[in-house]
Specification:
Structural class: alpha+beta
Strand content: 15-25%
Largest sheet: 5 strands, antiparallel
Order of helices and strands: EEHHHEEHHEHEHHE
Number of strands: 7
Radius of gyration: 21 Å
Shape: elongated
Length: about 240
């Protein structure tokens, strides 16, 4: 039996008190159905985002502004322009111009998928794009690591448990519980502060470096430890 004491605010839909639970039956911390819809969007934007060094919110907003932006590109091309002002997409963007050719390739690729899925992007999808990036870096750089999507997040610190519950499950009104691990299939420690420091204004390399630090197990000065657990467990309300 492990000596570590862990805490968690359970998902009221799938985690009941007073019995043995299995992480295979728990609700993931993200909407996996929606994540699968967003994964092709991430794959589409990633080369463009990496190449242009634009902020993530600028790339995301360009997809949201699809019809208007296509019209702006048409007008610019008729004037023999090769670039447009990136700040017309996002006023807070640090880079002033973006290649019309690269932007058109992005929009045309996204438009095909958007029509196929009848997809409308929302604010929550930005969080899912980061989860897609987490999976991408894990598979490329740390193939031996287990996915976050199939794991339960547990915490050593009560305050961190409350904070991350608000982040991952803002509508969850369950009580804080102590976690007893009954059967461990995997239990891996990561510093989630690497992820928490990321915002939509960051560029590709910011995300890549932070996510790589996360999966490497590197601990920051302002650490906020989360453990990815797979196995059987029980919960006791504190």
């Amino acid at each position: 039996m492990l000596e570590n004491v862990f805490f968690r605010i359970p998902d009221v839909k799938s985690e009941r008190l007073g019995g043995t639970l299995d992480t295979d039956m728990a609700e993931p911390h993200v909407n996996v159905t929606r994540l699968l819809d967003i994964m092709p969007v991430f794959n589409t934007i990633m080369p463009f985002w990496k190449e242009t060094h634009l902020q993530l919110d600028t790339v995301f907003m360009s997809l949201q502004q699809l019809p208007t932006l296509i019209q702006s590109i048409d007008i610019a091309e008729k004037r023999d322009k090769t670039h447009i002002n990136a700040r017309n997409i996002n006023a807070s963007e640090e880079i002033s111009i973006v290649s019309i050719r690269e932007l058109k390739e992005l929009l045309e690729s996204y438009e095909k998928y958007q029509k196929f899925k009848n997809l409308v992007l929302n604010t929550y999808d930005l969080h899912l794009i980061m989860e897609c990036f987490l999976e991408y870096v894990r598979k490329m750089e740390f193939p031996d690591k287990g996915s976050r999507l199939g794991a339960l997040m547990v915490y050593e610190n009560l305050g961190v448990a409350v904070q991350f519950n608000k982040m991952y499950n803002p509508d969850n009104n369950a009580k804080l519980c102590e976690v007893t691990i009954e059967e461990e299939r995997s239990l891996d420690r990561y510093d989630a502060s690497w992820l928490q420091q990321l915002t939509p204004v960051n560029i590709y390399t910011d995300y890549y470096n932070a996510i790589k630090s996360y999966w490497s197990g590197k601990i920051s000065e302002n650490r906020k430890l989360e453990w990815l657990f797979c196995g059987k467990y029980s919960l006791k309300e504190i």
